[in-house]
Amino acid sequence: MRTALNRHLTTVRNLGILAHVDAGKTTVTERILYATGTTHRRGEVHDGTTVTDFDPQERDRGITIFAAAVSCAWDGHRINLIDTPGHVDFADEVERSLRVLDGAVAVFDAVAGVEPQSESVWRQADRHGVPRIAFVNKLDRAGADLDTAVASIRDRLHPAPLVVQLPIGAEDGFTGVVDLVRLRALIWADGAETAVAQPVPPDLREEARRRRRLLEESVAELHPQALEEFCTAGALSERTLAAALRDLTRTGDGVVVLCGSAYRNRGIEPLLDAVVAYLPSPLDVPPVRGTGGEERPADPRAPLAALAFKVSATPTGRLTYVRLYSGTIEKGDTVWEAGARRTERIGRILRVRADRHAPVDRAVAGDIVAVVGLKSAHAGSTLCAPDAPLVLEPPSTAEPVVSVAVEARTSADTDRLATALARLTEEDPSLVVRTDPETGQTVLSGMGELHLEVAVEKIRRGHGLDVQVGRPRVTYRETVVRGVTGHVHRHVKQDGGAGQFAHVVLDVEPLEAGFEFRSTVVGGRVPQEYVRAVEAGCRDALAEGPLGGHPVTGVRVTLTDGATHVKDSSEMAFRTAGRAGLHGALRVSGMALLEPVVEVTVTVPEDAVGGVLGDLAARRGRVTGSVTRAGAAVVTATVPLAELFGYATRLRSRTQGRGTFTARPTGYAPAPAGR
């Protein structure tokens, strides 16, 4: 029985499709579904007929906004696939998806190569240790070049690219690929649904042999067993080469590169073969580890360990998407929700295909499914066996950088708006709702202007609410530029009964980023438990700085001295002293205001470059690079986020609708005086 279960796990692939916006990621997903027989017609992004971009806003805007899970089968393997967003505003959707995936396909535009957001998602995958293969898409476009795209992958992402295909034809004449591992040609005739395997065309044989040799040499440099065979025999067998490519992909030492044109349905079958051959199964990844150090193997018979990574409210109920790392769940089972410390009942289990679902009786380790019936679970919740609890590390959530005030147009809709916002933040943890203490307004914060636009439109469409939205505002920070030494604060309180006493001496100095606390107190003048309380109080004080009540970053605090009272000192007293002491120290320190900045990549016709550069300068932008690529100019600049509101409309008007731009956060920079 165990052998049969393990055999099932070896045929599962959990992977994501990652890319910069408009690299063809959703089209790749659609062609995968078509090639595997999951769909019977090819969905098109421009027609609004895709399976994974099923939300009305996704179809209206022509971009992926919400990560969509689909299941399909290929060559006896089950592929659980997540099509992730490519726009930077929805990077948290990518983060939550990568947390539960075993592998990924990174899609690159054959003309543009590595673009800003493809670099960002690649770094996200690096952090999670997710093995990848690369698919260079759009080889049928004018200016497409596989070698140039591979060079940008090598130069900007720094992996060892292992190119296993050679294109046959270029641009409009792209008709197939040479498989360098098996030394055969795969040709897609016009209108053909599948490739026809043929001998390598005579005019490409010499080039194919040369590239196969380069591939063998690259693999031998990275793989000890392959190197041994290469030195002995002077070449690598097909079997050894394939095994080495699999090993290098799974360790991350190499990245297999394939190519094609998803729109023309060319290159998808070899991509699926590579997914099966090179990307890991749940058995090939290390056992999942709880925050307490507990390990759970990918074994259906082990105690349950599952992570909820997405919550979605549908007309038929609340869906919780979960990845099972170990154990088994069946309809009607009771599970332990570790975060809420309560039991939950599994109502139904659904195999997911975007917005359509097929009920199943059970799910086992390695599966990604949706569950109906969980009431308190949210993105990041751990589901486990009641008699074997553990907590899995939840996906990280980035801090929001843009805020808008939202309010219902009528007082009668105020409660409905509060309910809608609560549901919105439940589905998307990167959205934050708070009440402004000064104005009493409800403030919605997110990752960017588009992120907030989508959220507000979802309230309008999904809940039928007419809401008013204020102008977007960015989230500023405050930092220390000149510190203070020996700042003394005494907290003394006597109001009957036990009093409060705490005496602290603090040094404050600038730090490049973040917050650091240390203590140099000697002689036990402040006991260790009180030192921890002082640190907690200092962290409390970071919430509001002296310039405008913005969060404080870039500060190091040192507790240098202090005193206690034999009766009146307590952790609460020292926490209060730490908070008030740091507040006072910051008021006498030199402080500066920081504003969020983004790296903007603008692609425009060459004749519009002058106007675009002038507009960026007017927005306090600092140009960092400019290149010409395929007849268009690509300008890179660092711009304050606050200056980018409305930029899309301005750019379109300056370029007669031909200009596009993307932006990704790069941190904070000093804001000019008067901000």
Give a short synopsis of this structure.
It contains 16 helices and 38 strands.
What do you see in this structure?
Helix 4 runs parallel beside helix 5, helix 11 (414-427) crosses helix 12 and helix 13 packs across helix 14. This protein folds into five domains: 1-175 and 249-278, Rossmann fold, CATH 3.40.50.300; 288-384, Translation factors (Elongation Factor Tu (Ef-tu), domain 3); 402-470, Elongation Factor G (Translational Gtpase), domain 3 (Alpha-Beta Plaits), CATH 3.30.70; 477-588, Ribosomal Protein S5, domain 2 (2-Layer Sandwich); 594-670, Alpha-Beta Plaits. The protein has 675 residues and is α+β, with helices and mostly antiparallel strands. Helices cover 28% and strands 33% of the residues. Pfam families: EFG_C, EFG_III, EFG_IV, GTP_EFTU, GTP_EFTU_D2.
